[in-house]
Amino acid sequence: MTRDTATRRPFAGTSTGNHGLTRPEVEAVLQQFGYRATGPRSTVIDAVIAHRRPFTAEQLVAEVSGSRTGPSIGRATVYRTLEILAAVDVLTRIIQPDGHPAYVCDSLGHRHHLVCSGCGTAVAFTKCPVDDLVRVLTKDTEFAIHDHLLEVFGVCPSCQAGAS
Amino acid sequence: MTRDTATRRPFAGTSTGNHGLTRPEVEAVLQQFGYRATGPRSTVIDAVIAHRRPFTAEQLVAEVSGSRTGPSIGRATVYRTLEILAAVDVLTRIIQPDGHPAYVCDSLGHRHHLVCSGCGTAVAFTKCPVDDLVRVLTKDTEFAIHDHLLEVFGVCPSCQAGAS
DNA sequence: GTCTTTGCAAAACGTTTGCATGTGA
DNA sequence: TCACATGCAAACGTTTTGCAAAGAC
């Protein structure tokens, strides 16, 4: 994603804490990055920040297009908006255990997620053990390492209790 | 994947080194797990072990169905065979940076991959820094952690040289 | 006024499934 | 013999694209 207007600086420490991200805040971020504030985007943002757990693009489509709160929003718009929100780091795109992508709305800075296989609850954590590994791999392989993907899957306490 | 015949014991240390896996070896593994040795499977296995880099299911389909070496093999067969090979640990299914799944043919035991964003070359490594993290997360969150996904992406030396 | 964004519908994409036929043990 | 495996084609769910109309700045 490359655009030539505006700040283009990632979200950084400018915002409030982990969750409790508000729509105006997100819209401000979008504007910083040169994206326009539109009605459909607001609706998508509202839906996004209402989620405390990972959600798929199709879930959001269902939520905002069956919407009682206004005109129905096109599938394409939802996909495009999610892509933008991920690009500006309001969302993180993760891969679920089943291989399907999902989005989580608590990513400020470098985070990973511990995802419950039962109910989908995601716990974000910042402790990233990959840095040391990257150093070793860089030295051993001479790759220029630029990214990594780390997700941890388990069963959360309440799902453990629920399952006999 | 659950079957009730035969050994059902993962590949373990029974085989030759990392790469250089041969078709008879792979077929032996399949038979250990109760799968039959068939012509189409042999063709798929040949194609699989010829790869030293991650490949997608569709790539393999193209290779074996445009085959000059015999009858064309159905898409479904390729997908089913890859799934089986992954289940018996001859292949590892990884997620590429673009989110698409791919398979790598060097996985014996617990491995991760350093994948080149330029050419797709994959280097396997066994050093897994996640164990400590799992201990910490288990204690902090009380999740029953059962799995994780770790992949590292970079640019390999020859792609670094190639790109001006 | 201009350029972005939208909604719709259609297409593309990768993958899975149903089923009649073929084949290995 | 008979369960397993195959090929085909159709179905599937997700994501992307083309385009004319609407909207933000």
Main traits of this protein?
about 20% strand; DNA-binding; about 160 residues; Arc Repressor Mutant, subunit A; disordered N terminus; alpha+beta; three-stranded mixed β-sheet; two-stranded antiparallel sheet; 6 helices; globular; homodimer
| Content-based structural category of chain A | alpha+beta
Oligomer: homodimer
CATH level 4 superfamily of chain A: Winged helix-like DNA-binding domain superfamily/Winged helix DNA-binding domain
Which strand order does the major sheet of chain A show? 4-3-5
Level of helix content of chain A? 25-40%
Mean pLDDT of chain A: 77
* SS element count, helices of chain A: 6
Most extensive chain-chain interface: A-B, 37 and 36 residues
Domain count of chain A: the total is 1
Characterization of the model:
The structure is a homodimer of 164-residue chains. Chain A has 164 residues and is of the alpha+beta class. Chain A has a single domain (7-163), classed as Arc Repressor Mutant, subunit A, CATH 1.10.10. In chain A, 37% of the residues lie in helices and 18% in strands. In chain A, strands 4-3-5 form a three-stranded mixed beta sheet. In chain A, helix 3 crosses helix 4 (75-87). Chain A is globular and about 50 Å long. The N and C termini of chain A lie far apart (47 Å). Strand 5 of chain A pairs antiparallel with strand 5 (144-155) of chain B, so a sheet runs across the interface. Chain A binds a DNA duplex (25 and 25 nucleotides) through helix 2 and helix 4.
